[in-house]
Amino acid sequence: MIWDTILFVIFPYIALAIGIVVAIYRSIHRPFSVSSMSSQLLERKKLYWGSISFHYGILAVLLGHLVALLLPEGLMLWNAVPIRLYLLELTGLALGIWALAGLCILLWRRLSEKRVRAVTTPMDLVVLVLLLVSAVTGVLVATLYRFGSFWFTAIFTPYLVSIFTFQPRVSLVAPLPWLIKLHVVNFFLLLAVFPFSRLLHIATYPFTYLFRPWQLVIWNRKPETAGKLSRTGDNKI
Amino acid sequence: MNVRAHMSMLFHLDKCIGCHTCSVACKNLWTDRKGAEYMWWNNVETRPGTGYPTQWESQERFNGGWVYDGKTLRLRLHSKLGGLMKLFYNPSLPEMDDYYEPFTFRYQDLFNAPASNDQPTAIPISMVTGEPINIQRGPNWDDDLGGSNTYAWNDPNMAGVPESVREQMQELERIVFNYMPRICNHCLNPACVAACPSGAIYKRAEDGVVLVNENKCRAWRMCVAACPYKKVYYNWSTGKSEKCLLCFPRLETGQAPACAHSCVGRIRYMGVLLYDADRIPQSAMVPDDQLVEAHRAVILDPSDPEVIAAARKNGIEDSWISAAQNSPAYKFVKVWELALPLHPEYRTMAMMYYIPPLSPVVSVVEEELYKLKISPDSRDFELFDHLDDARLPIQYLANLFSGGNEAVIRGILRKLLAVRTYMRRKSVEGEVDRKTMELLDEAGTNPKEVEAIYRLTTLPNLAERFVIPQYHRETAIESWTDPLARKGEAGFGALQPPQRGE
Fold first, then answer.
1. Domain A2-205 falls in which CATH fold?
2. Domains by residue range for chain B, with CATH
3. C-alpha distance from A220 to closest chain B C-alpha (Å)
4. pLDDT in tens, B164-197
């Protein structure tokens, strides 16, 4: 069908292109606008329950998707014993519900706290709603279309590989139920929105902190050391 | 020896009258913007009191500064991995109510109100939400209430002050407070820099100013919690951290920072200190009572030929070396040993210095009359031998300025009192008696030094208070681009207004 081609072939490429190109452009040319936009200063109690639940929940779930994409055979081997499959599915569902609960708290916080509402941009709400759709459909898929960790490797691993290798196989996703399709399309929508929103902070997660010295001292004047980060202390502190 | 230069400010607390001109000058210049209204890069606190943000010194709650466990130095806030785990929620971060919700008044109501029997009023509105608020606290809420039970007893530095002294301080005749202006301390071992996961905060090697690169800041806001002085602020509108920049654009054009320049009491001094960067780690790793001594040891003598040679080798210009030789900061901190860093036990090695305040004379009530408590011994007019009777407890000052080491505070106060006594004898009585000369000996000083301290304390002109070297910005530009190309592009950069990100 033409819609399947638009949603699962054309749109993913547009979303990917926007996601990568705009993210790079914004990071280089508008770095001041890139921020996680924390509002903990304005409100902290609801953020504690919402932000930790959402972030850790969604990170674990995303990691699960990634494992299914990168190590499909390992996943199949793990799922060969039924009890392991049940455990994996239950854990995934629990993490999804945890993230969903956190997201609901965050949305409620954003609308109910006066100070937080004052700094809310329309894009903040767009992002929250898209994430909500993603989490709700994800949890529903996990409950209604059981054993996603099983069929994901058969359908989405080859589908995503076909996208990345520029040989899209729309026939893999075309026969799927609309709920799963919505979940997928919503993901690509998020990808397209990502560089225009605060979501860009995901790409700036500071892993480098683990490897840098504690102190940063920058010379501006001396040409021979200019730009080189030297350190006052050493690793002793 | 790894010699670097530092611009350091010095606060003579005896001269501070608590007028807040410094805070207003800073506010007008730097933080009069949306999201920055609550930031007071410079603030003046009444001590003993709770300070701003409220109880910023209680590190059990805010987890600022470094901890030395006898072997290693670590951030009180987090390990590197622990820091990354806490990005989504940082329990040590102060919230807006620890500062205050910025407010203004709806002045247009005064003009637009319909005719009525009542005077129209301008009601307070929040600058965050724009809605009417009931003002609960402000940036300087306990101004001049420093001695009171509500504020003074909640001062974290009152810990360790004996109960008997606390009771004395409550007597009306002995009630006391002093003012303490604070800016960013531009530390040698800054905790904010160490805590920033993005690496957005750095120390400028040329003059030691600690700056936030807002293009790299990602609002992980660890700096706010890690700074033990709570002098990094989070802009809730732009989603970036901001802090005092020591008015570097003014310094680079030969002017003192706005807070110092506008100071009515002329309490502030500004000068270059040369220090040995290699000695920073071990100076932060000594027991609490040795911290002041270790801190002084990092600062080098700018007249020592060896130091001068090493400084030149590190690219420090001669104008900076001669500025260091004339630096009022060097004289007060190192030569006369009168100035101390604020809270050395945080081990960030603060580079702004304070001369501790003397207390007002103590009065007693006798037969329902107030009387100065003066002993017949003339040298005791200033409590030279009875510092424990001073209104401001020595222990309290030691908790503020010397990591609890009372001997350091006693030495400084006795020297300051010796200067006073000597100059009083000289100017009032015309001659200095033997007793006073003995007093000078006991305080470890001599007439020449006393005269110099007196001169720089009471009579300095602008050029003596602020010894600011040439910044040679032209060399900074030359090291990056062709000066002519730079000149050609002036004014055509694409500036972005500081808006909240999409």
1. Fumarate Reductase Cytochrome B subunit (1.20.950)
2. 3-251 (no CATH), 356-462 (1.10.3650.10)
3. 6
4. 878 777 777 778 889 999 999 999 999 999 999 9
